[in-house]
Fold this sequence. Notes:
The chain has 56 residues and is mostly helical.
Amino acid sequence: MRAVFWSFFGVRKGKDHDRDMAQLNPVHVIVAGLVGAALFIAILIVVVRVAINLAK
């Protein structure tokens, strides 16, 4: 999850990236990316709903 988290921000050291590529299973990376994207979307939805309720 840590590798996917940092990749969302585009910040990763070269040596850490190389180490992750050697150790990580591609299926795990895909699943972690989907979970991360779902969490990000859920947080955005909650923030928008709170902002709309406060604006009323």
